[in-house]
Each structure stands twice: as structure tokens, then as C-alpha cells.
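Researcher: Please translate sequence to C-alpha cells.
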Amino acid sequence: MKLASAITVALTLAALSCTPAFATEKGALFIGGGLNLDGSTWEDFLDDNSGTAADDGTGGLGINAYIGVQAGSFASFRVGYRYYGKQSADLFVPGVFFNTTTTSSLEVRGPFIAADLLVPISDLVGIGGTLGIVNWKADYDIGPTDGSDSGSDPFLGVLVRLSPRDENFSFDFYTQSFTIDPGNSNDDITFGSVGAALNVHF
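Model: Translation complete:
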């Protein structure tokens, strides 16, 4: 429901952006994609919920792809798909004579909508933020147990956009924070991401 409402708002703003008041030197429509380094509190979540100690948590490489509408020189609205890099951690399972180690993993993905609002600091560069919602699905593997969960949660980010004049492309550099609330746990899992993306305007 939250995702559907947000999509309605985004489409309304997209329609407004096509009016002359929102005219921009670049094409109003664009497609884009990016790569992200994603880390999370997956290891802490396992410590609190798995009943065994977790260690050596590692993040992964994520991707995102989207279509969007440019509204003025430094604002945009996007609809796309996000894959958060695979999160892994070692679980130490106590035994009678010796301990064993098993690997757990978490993968989160889903469609998203986002609004980017920036303040121009020069003709080429804008700095601002991103607010969005991800309709996520999570698949996890904790030792011999695997399962999935889903939900909708917001994400926030800091964004720098480099937009060369008289060119049909722009570059985004960003950090983002995204927290999911698994339904069967009292603990959240927070993702922290650093990434870069290329946008092509039409």
C-alpha cells in the first residue's frame, strides 16, 4: 500500500515536470544504473537472534537500475529495481568436543521509487539528498535454516550529481541508509551503501 501511494505521487510529479515551468537543458526522461558497495548489521542481527556467535561479517556488491523524470535542473523522480549486495557472516556452532563453523547469508532486493532534491553549487554540480521506498524481499540462510521475508521500508541518502553542460548524461555519487524490519524479530537490519551511477537523458 505504501509503495502504491508513493508511485501515485511520483507519477503526479512526473506529469508536472513535463510542463514548461520545469524545462531543463537536458531531456526530461532518463534511464540509469549504478553499482553499490553494501554493508549491513547482519552480523549483529545473527548475534542477537541465532543463538550462536557470529563473526567475520562481509558486505557485497549491489546494483540498481531505473527510469526517471528530470524536474528542473536539480530534481528528479525515479522508479527502479535495487539489489543489495549479498551479506555473509560466519556462525560458530558449539559442539561436545569441538566447535564448527557455518556460513550464513542474506540477500535483499526489490522495486523502489525515489525523489532526488539537490541544491546547485555550480553550473555542473548539485548536492542534496534522496528519499525513497523499497518494496523489498529478503532471502536468508542461517546454518541449516533458510527462509524469506518481505516488506516496504524507506531509505535516505546523500547525493552529489555531476551534470556536464550540453551533454545527454549525468553522474551520481551517493551514500544511502536503508533499514528493514523482519517480521519475526525484534531487531532491525540496517544497510549502508556507497555507490555511483550513470544517467542517460532523452
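Researcher: Any highlights?
Model: The longest helix spans residues 2-17.
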